Amino acid sequence: MKVQVGRGILTQVLQKVQSVTEKKTGMPILFNTLLQASDEQTLDFSATDLELSLWTRMECRVEVPGTSTVTARKLLDIVRELPDENIILEQLPNEKLLIQSGRSRFELSTIPADDFPHMNFYTDADFFKCDASVLKNALGKTLYAVPVEDDPFSIAGLYWHRLESGAVRFVSSDGHRLACYGMPEDSFTEVDLGKGIIIPRKGVQEILKVLEKEEDVSLALHENCLILKTPDTVLSIQLLEMEFPDYQLIIPEERPFSFLVERETFFHALKRVAVLTNQKWRHVRFIIDSGALELEAGNPEVGNASDAVDIEYEGDSFTVAFNIKYVMDTVQAMESPQVQFEWVDQFHGGVFVSPDDAGYLSLIMPMVV
Amino acid sequence: MKHRIMHIDMDAFYASIEQADHPEWKGKPVIVGASMRGVVCAASYEARKFGVRSAMPVFQARRLCPGGVYLPVRMKRYREVSSLVMEIFRQASPLVEQVSIDEAYLDVTGTEKLHGPPERLAAHIKEAVLEKTSLTCSIGIAPNRFLAKIASEMKKPDGLTIIEEEEVPGLLQGLPVTQIPGIGSKTGERLHALGIRVVGDILKFPLSFWTARFGKSGAALYEKAQGQGSCEIVSYSDPKSSSAEDTFDVDTDDPEELKKWLLLQAEEVGRDLRARGLRGKTVTLKVKFADFKTLTRSRTLSAPTHCTEKIFLTASRLLGHLPLTQKVRLIGVGVSHLVSGSRQMPLFPDRSFDRLEKLDVALDEIHKKFGDKILKRGRIADFDP
Q1: pLDDT grade for B292, boundaries at 50, 70 and 90
Q2: What is the mean pLDDT of chain B?
Q3: Where does B241-380 sit in CATH, by number?
Q4: Measured between alpha carbons, how far is residue B243 from residues A264, B17, B36, B379 in Å?
Q5: Which CATH number is associated with domain B169-225?
Q6: Distance from CA of A135 to the nearest CA of B (A)
Q7: Does the active-site annotation cover B166?
Q8: What is the sign of the dihedral through the CA atoms of A324, A330, A331 and A333?
Q9: What class does CATH assign to B1-163?
């Protein structure tokens, strides 16, 4: 195998590929990416962690077709450092992959392509077109509430299901908060979500990476896999076989009280008082009064902080406390100029909605201080 | 500022608790430790008159004091009383360092404005301890820790000794070296061999003499002989766990009996956590078998708890998974990964424990007011180890 590729495009491709390979695994081959160069003047990269598989194709000058596998991490690190735009990748007779650019030479160990695990991308499944920007928006606004740590009490994935009304929703929750993005009834009409599917956290992150620069996207569901296809990339994600809790009951339908606040102003005030929160005292207290919201954070050990922002609200005063990180995550995820906070009482979750983005809803359970 | 350190030592703690709980044993020689390892854990002052001492084999004690009341150790009860008296100490000063179940140092520097002169504070503490527990304690007040400890030893039981700074040299001069805390029988023998009997003798030799022979502890000894010592009180630090365990008089493999022990211990641990405003995320079961093989099993909960029933259920489920291939000599429950501070409410709360948590609060109140004999959980109504 011998190919000539551009550094910029190779970096982009390897960034996508590399994050799939990154997983604590005992199998060295899974750190590698499979390279396949063909006479059609294309170079394909594949990577898998056995649950998530990615295939992507780039055009380049292929002098000698062939295959190889090398560690994706090191290849990316090398390509990033190379001085010249023009890079030569060549499989040497000594089982090494030569990476050459200008006067720099690297030889990386390889594992034979035959040892690479079999990947099925189900490219013959029933794909349907999907609006990349809509999907990106929905995933971007719900990913933050998918728990990062493995925790037997919550689901480390994004739930995608269809309501009785026919509309679809993306829902994430770590057991303390819930983020939800609903779509109009005419979107994703082709997909049969059954009882709903759960996309693992890493899968959602990978989809977002693929969507970054793509417009032409199609999706398919096949044998417990979600497959995302663009003209030069296929991503296949094994779905989590778990049951998502019946979350709809805990979103209070009637929320009699609400205020409106400028999002940026609100976020900066939160960020300031957050300085005095810590592992033990993570709360921010909302002291809501006509026209003003006072934020209080802190603890007896370090000290206290307070700040205030103007709000659109006329009514009785009300106080409630939340984990400040949860509030900041929510406010940051919203892109609208204003945030609407709605509540029932101290015992029900507080609801954050975005007046300019009807699909978004965030529910955060209060803290007892 | 002139430091004032108080050392409080409960008088014959275990034995006095037994006498307080069983008035019929008052005035009688009481020896605690009848079944445990065959060693005396505590002896009442009446028993000490017969020469019975702590750590003495029980058979020897029986020979010295055949008419004594020999009792098993009720650690749970002693811990309970201990936390009561420590609570009283904490009201006297925020700086309390508990060094054992029946002993604590308090930094009472500058509390005169609040509590009056040290005599009055000491009298007040003694009164409160007597009223709450019917026990007496001995108190020493001095400019540093080791002097305070010496002071509390001087008039036992129910003693109060105050050592003022100016009295220190005179007092130390004639004090036998073996009365300095930290000087055990071994060091005592070495000192006696050097002809050193009282603290005053130590100062007859220069510091270099002591460091050459005893190294660092020689320097410390020389310092103490001059009446100098640490007055730093390391108060109560964040605990990492709370636990209770009991060794049985007779080994058992009866799951029902083991569960009764677990419930008692869960209550003790839960009550301790509740009293300190803590909750824990991990419940650990400890089992020691007849052959001394020890196993521990843990489970992490979805949300931190201090609920007796939750701790008990988790521990007994862990016990259920443990094959009881032989008899058990010890069982225990611990709760760790403790948290305090603001508490997150869950989206999907486990409401089944809400009422039980309220029950805990009510039981704690009743227990505080009337003692734990008055009301018991039904499952252990007939269980009184």
Answers
A1: confident
A2: 87
A3: 3.30.1490.100
A4: 48, 21, 20, 21
A5: 1.10.150.20
A6: 26
A7: no
A8: positive
A9: alpha beta
